[in-house]
Structures are given as structure tokens and as C-alpha cells.
Amino acid sequence: LVPLLRLSGAHAGAVRTLTDDGERMQLVGEIGLPAEVLAAERLVDRHCGVCGMAADTDTLTWGADLRPCARHGAADYFDQRCKRVLAVPLRHRDTVLGIYTLFFDQASELGPEIEAVLRSIGELLGLALHNARLERENLRASVMNERQLIASEVHDAVAQTLAYMKMRLPLLQDAMLQH
Predict the structure, then answer these.
(1) pLDDT recorded at residue 107
(2) Which residues pair with 99 in a beta bridge?
């Protein structure tokens, strides 16, 4: 986020990922946001405000009407310090996986070149998120496979022991009959 803030002139930034059900956005990183904003914005509805528009439309979205943000409980920040917000989707192929948001203390405009760079960074971050999810799923599958292998080995060991005992039981019975 630090290079993005420098590039854009924003005073704060946040990164949110969509939850597994796709209905909420969870704050996973931030720089420059006050504590009351962090408390209010940890988990928000996917369709909320400027961030929701960016997630729903898969487009870079500017917003100056920050009333939806202020309703979460950080009215002082969004009424006084933050004047404009830019939300950029984190996408991989045709799927939005999250957004990053830049907060501006003035109504500044960014040039089309800067917006293109910010869009590209959103795509790169989306690819990184996609790869992290694949890695997590791969790890989960590896753990399940290892557990299945251990369970199979335990089952085979018990089955072998029982089969051996079944084969030896007639010898024990004969020995008992012969005293």
C-alpha cells in the first residue's frame, strides 16, 4: 500500500478480500486509517458504498458521497478528513476476489496513466490472491491425503494382526486340548 499511496497522493489505503461466501468484504490490510474506521470497517457488506460498486461492477470506481461509509460508525473521519475514495477491484480473470481502496483528503483527480497502473496493480494482486487460495486448497488436500494414508495404514495393520490371530487360534485350541 505504501507505494500506492505515494503514486496516487492518497493519505490512507485499505485492502479487503471477499469472504468465502462472497457476501462480505473483510479488511486484511491498511495504512493510515484511524482506529474508529478500522473498528467499523473490519467486515462490511459486499454491496456497501463505493467499495461495493467496484466489487459489483468490476471497475475502478471513484466516490465522493461517503455517507454509506460514515454510517458504519466513523462519521468524523468521512465527514471531515476523507473527501474522496477510489476503489479498485482485485480480480483474476473474470472473478473479483476483493478490492483495495485509496482515501483522499482533497478532491484531486488522477491522470489516466496513473489509473491504468492502479488497475494493473489490482489485477496483479488478484492473481496473487488466486494463487494464495490455490496454495491453501492444495495444502488442505495434502493434509487430507496424508490423514487418509495414515488411516489406511492403521486399518491394514489391525487387519493383518486379526488375520494372523485367526490363523493361529486353531493351533492354540489344539494345544489346549492336548494339555
Answers:
(1) 75
(2) 16, 89
> Strand pairing partners for 43?
26
> How far, in Å, CA of 68 to CA of 54, rounded?
14
Q: What angle do CA 89, 92, 93 make, to 5 degrees?
A: 115
CB 45 within 8 A of CB 23: yes
C-alpha span between 160 and 71 (Å, rounded): 66
Which residues in the chain show pLDDT less than 50? none
- CA end-to-end span of the chain, whole Å? 85
Q: What pLDDT shows up at residue 10?
A: 92
Residue 78: how many other CB atoms lie within 10 Å: 21
Residue 168 burial by Cβ neighbours in a 10 Å radius (0-12, 13-18, 19+): exposed
Q: What is the pLDDT at residue 36? A: 84
Q: How far apart are CA 48 and CA 41, in angstroms?
A: 11
Distance of CA 90 to the CA centre of its chain: 11
Q: Specify the pLDDT at position 96.
A: 92
